[in-house]
């Protein structure tokens, strides 16, 4: 259960309008909203370096991320494509929050999504699809395409949405 809580906390970290502070301690995860960046520093809150260091976000190591994935696969019966959808949507949401289409000079704003041959590449394909729905014009660079049904389906979905590939 702690892995799922950590994953949900990380999902909020990417997708939340306020970035939560995620701390993983002895199998527990607690998220509290907090402002990051200039707003936090201006507010008179703990803006000094020591205060920022003590409230740092806990990033997962590769081993911890793999353990969360395994828990989601085994205990909660998530599929690879479900996790790709969640990751791709979270990435697209983070981009849209950091760079809203209305704040950019070009309309629609263009985004290059570079995808590798593994599951992160699948996350990128899903991200590009959601960016298109959010009003961006993504272009995908996907030089090493695996010959697997899931990836072929994701490529087809992007092509059907008129997302160009380089």
TrEMBL record:
<comment type="subunit">
    <text>Homodimer. Interacts with APOA1 and APOA2.</text>
</comment>
<keyword id="KW-0809">Transit peptide</keyword>
<keyword id="KW-0413">Isomerase</keyword>
<keyword id="KW-0496">Mitochondrion</keyword>
<feature type="domain" description="YjeF N-terminal">
    <location>
        <begin position="65"/>
        <end position="166"/>
    </location>
</feature>
<dbReference type="Pfam" id="PF03853">
    <property type="entry name" value="YjeF_N"/>
</dbReference>
<keyword id="KW-0964">Secreted</keyword>
<keyword id="KW-0547">Nucleotide-binding</keyword>
<dbReference type="GO" id="GO:0000166">
    <property type="term" value="F:nucleotide binding"/>
</dbReference>
<dbReference type="InterPro" id="IPR004443">
    <property type="entry name" value="YjeF_N_dom"/>
</dbReference>
<keyword id="KW-0630">Potassium</keyword>
<feature type="signal peptide">
    <location>
        <begin position="1"/>
        <end position="16"/>
    </location>
</feature>
<dbReference type="InterPro" id="IPR036652">
    <property type="entry name" value="YjeF_N_dom_sf"/>
</dbReference>
<protein>
    <recommendedName>
        <fullName>NAD(P)H-hydrate epimerase</fullName>
        <ecNumber>5.1.99.6</ecNumber>
    </recommendedName>
</protein>
<dbReference type="InterPro" id="IPR032976">
    <property type="entry name" value="YJEFN_prot_NAXE-like"/>
</dbReference>
<keyword id="KW-0479">Metal-binding</keyword>
<dbReference type="GO" id="GO:0052856">
    <property type="term" value="F:NAD(P)HX epimerase activity"/>
</dbReference>
<dbReference type="GO" id="GO:0046872">
    <property type="term" value="F:metal ion binding"/>
</dbReference>
<comment type="function">
    <text>Catalyzes the epimerization of the S- and R-forms of NAD(P)HX, a damaged form of NAD(P)H that is a result of enzymatic or heat-dependent hydration. This is a prerequisite for the S-specific NAD(P)H-hydrate dehydratase to allow the repair of both epimers of NAD(P)HX. Accelerates cholesterol efflux from endothelial cells to high-density lipoprotein (HDL) and thereby regulates angiogenesis.</text>
</comment>
<keyword id="KW-0521">NADP</keyword>
<keyword id="KW-0732">Signal</keyword>
<keyword id="KW-0520">NAD</keyword>
């Amino acid at each position: 259960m702690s892995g799922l809580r950590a994953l949900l906390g990380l999902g909020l970290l990417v997708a939340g309008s306020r970035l939560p502070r995620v701390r993983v301690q002895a199998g527990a995860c607690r998220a509290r909203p907090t402002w990051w960046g200039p707003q936090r520093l201006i507010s008179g809150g703990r803006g000094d370096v020591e205060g920022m260091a003590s409230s740092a976000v806990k990033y997962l190591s590769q081993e911890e991320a793999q353990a969360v994935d395994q828990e989601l696969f085994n205990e909660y019966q998530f599929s690879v494509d479900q996790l790709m959808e969640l990751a791709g949507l979270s990435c697209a949401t983070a981009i849209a929050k950091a760079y809203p289409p209305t704040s950019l000079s070009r309309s629609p704003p263009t985004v290059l999504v570079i995808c590798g041959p593994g599951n992160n590449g699948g996350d990128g394909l899903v991200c590009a699809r959601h960016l298109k729905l959010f009003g961006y014009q993504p272009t995908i660079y996907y030089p090493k395409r695996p010959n697997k049904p899931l990836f072929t389906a994701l490529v087809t979905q992007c092509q059907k949405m008129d997302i160009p590939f380089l």
